[in-house]
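Same chain as my last thread, 233 residues:
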Amino acid sequence: MPVPKHHEQFYFTLITFLVEDRLFRVPRDTLESQSDVFRDLFLLPVEAGKAEGYSDTNPIVLEGIMKEEFQSLMKVLYPMPLTRSPHSPDGLPTTLEEWTGILKLSKMWSFTRVQEFAIQQMEPMLAMKPLDKVALAQDYGITEWLIPGLLQLARREEPIGLEDVRKIGLDTALKLADVRESTQSTMPTWAGRYYVNPIDRSVDMPTIIATGPRGSTSCDFTNRIRQVFNLQE
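reply #2:
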């Protein structure tokens, strides 16, 4: 009788992690294929019989990671559509908090495809949450979120407050206040638009930095945001 061979795709080596007070045991292959960090970890030489992660008594301990964050990441790496709930037909996480944890860990451990997927999933959740969008853009280097989020904050009617400072930091809040104040001008306005002196066009008029009143959704602060925050086109 020939010696059985391992199936190329469906023969998994399981690895055990301890996150806070919870043990997770998952296929090692997915971690290796999706993350350079885990691939390098599993390539480290170890003494015979002392390899971590192959039993509940000797797991790989992940310090500084919350079990809820790790669980959310596992849901993406190992989706279970047959056990889906009515709130999640595809078995994936459903809340911004869960996806923020996924974004954090995927960036930390170089799960590039997972990070891109997390950004895609979070986009609609952040559509009406510009403060969170800017905070996350700063924390995780998501440049494509920064200008749209700042633009929404610059356009809103409410002034910069303590919650803004808490989430995006004092420096960003002060720069945002600078952007918002750029609507102020000595130029006369009508219906929210600046106009030039119709009688004497030679009159030296101040430069328009942004057009429209604060709170106007048509007011475009994009160039001023790039200038104040030193952002490239």
